[in-house]
Amino acid sequence: MYAKSKNKRSKTESLVNETAIRVLTINKHRFVVGLEWETIKAHRKVMQEVRKIGKTRNLDVVAIRKAEAIQAGFAPKTRQKLRGAYSLIVSLASLLEGSCIAVIPVGTVNAKGEEEYTLVGRTEKGAIHPVSDAIYSEPEIRQVVLDLKQDLRGNQQNTEIPVYGDQDKFTWVTDSLDINELLKSSNLKKDFRLKPLRWGMTKNQLIGFTAALLMSGVAVLFILNHLDEQERLKRAAAQAMMKQQEEINKKARYQAALDKFKHPWVTTSSIPVFLKACEDGLKKFDLSIKGWAPATIKCSQSGFDVNYNRPDNSSVTAEEFVEAIRDIFGTEPAFNITQTSVSAFHLDHSLPPNGDDPFQDMGQQLLTIVSLFQAVNIPASLAEVSIKDVKKSEEGEDLPLQDWQEYTFDVQTTVPPQLVFKDGEFTGMRLNSIIYEIGQDQGSVNYKITGSVYGKRIIKP
User: Fold this and answer.
1) 119 in the same domain as 254
2) 238-291: pLDDT as tens digits
3) How many domains does the chain have?
């Protein structure tokens, strides 16, 4: 339970600070903010256990929330007359549904002139998260909400946690909250009210308590100062740890975004290596296998896709051709039941990647590739691959941008690709595939060449 982990405190003294208490008036009803919450272990005689805690710590009123566990929010006796008022956090946790967060202004400012807010974090089963019902300044409320969302998600990090509040004030608020409508009289129940822990003291008890308080005043002040200092040191250490963890998380998010922009040409082979692999691979395919002739042979970075056709008036059956392919290549060809004179099969090959080519000027790259095709009178056009930039993360942090541009080309020609791409390394260029279309007379070949050209992207501010 959340509250159990947060409320590690002395069992004999209250750490509830009267100055943290705020009273809001909504629809002529008084709502209290700033209670100190903890989980009640007893499931029977709950109020007896609560009053015992109140008596031990000299507390005045309590709010009770019964959900997946029983939680109690305590407050000391103050001049603000809290008895009979509603607990704002119990009211919101009871009226809202599902796992969510609500951010509410308390109408005050701190010593720095910063507006103050409180919030409620509601778990899926209705429990109140420990960071609820505290006072936060405007500069720190956003980080508290981000951390609270992570905590509420638990192991299910894809869960959407709605944040209710003023959408005009905070861009990270997902849903508008009409506090006056939600806390109207018809929605309020007596279970939302603060209950007194005692009905006051007798005259003798008051005299005795005053005497004891005067005699132990110096000791109490010393203890309180000591506890305040220890608490301050704990808060400082916790804040330093949170800041360090946030920096680690920020670097991790940036690196994860950077990993998405790995250069696509790193894992593919260079143009000379690709052409040689295609040329060597073509020698494996006979112009006649059991009388069947090749129609198209596609050479790609991953292998060969081959189509063979059965000539008209041939006496060789598909079964004989399939058996021959099994014997020659050790692979299973596909047999087309609608076009029974066609069969296809695939052969893998492994080409060494050329790695991360150094960046080239994009304008010069385009000029080079167009000139290569023009040199052999091949008309060519290139298409730019669009880029969709995401400049900010969900947390509002700057993200890296793609640092390269890509253009693709697709040409058809009777000129062998070895005559187009000759005498060069062709840095920043890749061939994706070559389709060899073999004429029926097997004396002519058409080439369909596809590829990509990469260059340095100029990012405009």
Assistant:
1) no
2) 888 877 776 766 566 656 655 666 899 999 999 999 999 999 999 999 989 998
3) 3
